[in-house]
Structures are given as C-alpha cells and as structure tokens.
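Hey,
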Amino acid sequence: MNEWAVIYTPKAQEDLLRLDKSVRARVLKTIARVRLNPLPVTEGGYGKPLSGELSGCLKVKFRRLGIRVVYRLHRTEHGMEIIVVGMRADSEVYAIAAERLKQMITD
C-alpha cells in the first residue's frame, strides 16, 4: 500500500513545536505509521471517526501521553491533513479542531 502524503496546517505545525522533543518524536513516529493506512477503523485503517462538528475527521490517541491528533483525509489527493496535535484536557483538543475547521472554511 502506498503512503499517504501528510499535510500539516500551520497551526498543527505550531502544536508540534510546542511539544517536548521526546514527545514530538513519538508523535511523528506514530503519524509516519498511520500514514500507511490513515483510513477509518471501519475501513481497516488506524483512524477513529469523530462525530458532530468534527464529522469527517479522524483521531489517533496517545493514551499514555494524553495527546490526540485530529486529521481529515483528502482521498482524491491521497493525503491526510493534520488539523491539531494537542493534550486531551477535557476534550479541549476537539473544540480547537472544530474552531480551526471553521476558520479554514471562511479563509
């Protein structure tokens, strides 16, 4: 299977840079693995589908680190767009992702 292109939004790049170097390395390693099959788990991939305002987006959880990566697929371009990388903190990461998606639509 071909790897999918990984596209980081500018804000997601900032999120990554704010992480401790060792945590960032683990997140990047997992994203590299997920890009091999970023499809939803319902299609045999790694991504867990989100609902509500984030319908159409997927997440990857880092349970021990408390970090979530929210992304969406661009199936025609064979790419996965990282929207947010952040701590779970009472679903704050999901609220940030929803806000960023709204901004992307209006920009």
